[in-house]
């Protein structure tokens, strides 16, 4: 018996939708983690690149592309036996930082997605005190990536984050000239909440932006060695993403040079984010296998 083409087409569309719903996506937007997950035993790879020289410096330097850059590479593995569980490893040239951790998707609703993420970071360079803080540190980071679907194409993300140790932990924070000096060391870790927004224009093309607030303890503090009255800054990143078969390429501008949670959300890494006018280019390339 010959089947009519309409039911066959409907079945194909439904099957395609089901497969798409179960497809893997690398759980990273720009610098903030998403609540996505790698399915089954799938493998995701990401390459990150952050230029240091601000875009506005000189056209003769190709607007920062001739300057120094930090590159990184990461892998995220799906764990088929525990639905929603991922293991990730990441290494970036910034202080030779090595990250390893777990992310578990705990909610995957129609309008809200949520994951729990925990990682350990180690800066492999020799521990040294610099004017901007200490390098060669290690610590833990806990995050709760949460995504709210305002519409199917507009996603608002909130990433509460706690970092156990930062570059100025156990040091005395300097203050701008003329202010009362600090006499007690900066103790404990840092709690921060990263914010993000994604807007999809088509299935392949979208806009993404992230905001990294300055932690309150740095509101009246100055980066070491800075004497012009400047305090620590808020961080941001904004750009566009293009997604094709199993690839996602994201190009953006940012005033935060790092990529890991302790680098972009601690507020004091490398003296903190630059002034908003001193933003530089960066890009991510993610691939799912």
What is this structure, in a nutshell?
This protein has 289 residues and is mostly beta strands. It is built from 2 helices and 15 strands. The model is unreliable at 1-6 and 8-21 (pLDDT under 50).
Strand content: 35-45%
Distance between the termini: 40 Å
Shape: globular
Helix content: under 10%
Let me know the number of strands.
15
Q: How confident overall, as mean pLDDT?
A: 90
Largest pleated sheet: 13 strands, antiparallel
Overall structural class, as computed from helix and strand content, comes to mainly beta
Oligomer: single chain
Rg over CA atoms, rounded to whole Å, is 21 Å
Low-confidence stretches: 1-6, 8-21
Helix and strand string, N-terminal first? HEEEEEEEEEEEEEEHE
Question: Would you mind describing this structure in some detail?
Answer:
By secondary structure, the protein is mainly beta. Helix content is 7%, strand content 43%. Strands 1, 2, 3, 4, 5, 8, 9, 10, 11, 12, 13, 14 and 15 form a 13-stranded antiparallel beta sheet that branches. A hairpin with a 2-residue loop joins strand 13 (235-244) and strand 14. The longest helix has 17 residues, at 5-21.
Mind sketching the topology for me?
Elements: H1 5-21, E1 43-51, E2 69-78, E3 85-92, E4 97-108, E5 112-123, E6 128-130, E7 133-135, E8 138-143, E9 146-151, E10 154-163, E11 190-200, E12 205-212, E13 235-244, E14 247-254, H2 261-264, E15 280-288
Antiparallel strand pairs: 1-2, 1-15, 2-3, 3-4, 4-5, 5-8, 5-9, 6-7, 8-10, 9-10, 10-11, 11-12, 12-13, 13-14, 14-15
């Amino acid at each position: 018996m010959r089947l009519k083409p309409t039911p066959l087409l409907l079945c194909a569309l439904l099957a395609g939708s089901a497969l798409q719903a179960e497809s893997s996506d690398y759980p990273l937007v720009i610098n903030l983690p998403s609540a996505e997950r790698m399915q089954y035993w799938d493998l995701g790879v990401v390459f990150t690149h952050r230029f240091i020289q601000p875009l506005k410096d000189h056209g003769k330097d190709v607007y920062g592309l001739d300057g120094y850059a930090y590159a990184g590479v990461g892998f995220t593995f799906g764990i088929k036996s525990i639905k929603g569980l991922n293991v990730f490893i990441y290494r970036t040239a910034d202080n030779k930082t090595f990250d390893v951790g777990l992310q578990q998707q705990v909610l995957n609703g129609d309008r809200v997605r949520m994951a729990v993420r925990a990682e350990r970071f180690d800066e492999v360079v020799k521990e040294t005190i610099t004017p901007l803080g200490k390098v060669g540190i290690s610590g833990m980071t806990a995050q709760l990536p949460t995504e709210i679907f305002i519409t199917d194409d507009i996603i608002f993300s909130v990433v509460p984050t706690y970092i156990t140790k930062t570059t100025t932990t156990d040091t005395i924070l300097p203050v701008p000239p003329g202010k009362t000096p600090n006499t007690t060391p900066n103790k404990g870790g840092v709690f921060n909440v990263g914010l993000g927004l994604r807007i999809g224009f088509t299935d392949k093309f979208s806009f993404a932006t992230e905001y990294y607030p300055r932690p309150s303890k740095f509101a009246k503090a100055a980066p070491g060695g800075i004497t012009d009255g400047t305090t620590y800054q808020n961080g941001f990143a904004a750009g566009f993403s293009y997604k094709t078969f199993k690839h996602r390429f994201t190009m953006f501008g940012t005033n935060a040079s790092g990529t890991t949670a302790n680098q972009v959300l601690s507020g004091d890494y490398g003296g903190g984010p630059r002034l908003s006018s001193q933003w530089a280019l960066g890009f991510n390339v993610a691939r799912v296998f």
